[in-house]
# Entry
Amino acid sequence: MTLNCNDKIIDFNTQKIMGILNLSRDSFYDGGKYSSLEEVISRVSEMINQGAEIIDIGAVSSRPGSKIIKGEDELKLIKDYIVELTSNFKNIFFSIDTYNSVVADFALKNGFNIINDISSGKYDVRLLDIIKEYQAGYVIMHMQGDPENMQEKPTYKNVVSSISGFFDSKIEEFHNQNIENIIIDPGFGFGKSIEHNFQILNNLKEFKKYKKPLLIGLSRKSMIYKFLNISPDDALNGTSILNMIGLQNGANILRVHDIKEAKECISLFSKLN
# Structure
């Protein structure tokens, strides 16, 4: 399974690590840890050396309770980092975590490969035109509600069926617009209770029917630390355990903060298969 993402081929026949680089001080974990250009470049270099093949950079928090921000404001926060990263690292895939078309356009113009959009085109309709223009990779994610209200008693008759219905609709919609390079993300923690998240993980193989790369973002999330009554800082062990279950259930991409440990998960999984 391969995708052509802004003129670079990504092979998903082996599992990939997507390293998270948060530039927002408001992120639920490691917010504000990397701010200067020197710190960011150093961190990206470290992630690559530890085994990340995709770096996902974002300047806007999407944690529960966060608000939507304008594209022009987001671009001011992130444009210098985009230019520096693609200038310094040529043999890596870059993803931009954004729902704003002006940010996506700038990133793709400067060599980024993937748009990771929590809204799946809901917040900025022009984003789809940008993705089509560059033939970029496009991560579509299921979310009930919006970040500001998504964790206010999320309710489903059947969460797995609801996500499948969402993917059915969105994949058809985007294919009709000649957007083909799609990655699917069930959206752990985005409008789901802890119980919903575990139901999704247990039934992850249901989404393999779409024959699209499957991304999971479990890293240090509340389904781990709230269930275990610990903090995000202490949730690495739980993250590794659930990532291994995700791999066994068909995940192609692990989106994580901790690269070394995710690489170990993939290596052990590969040895078992």
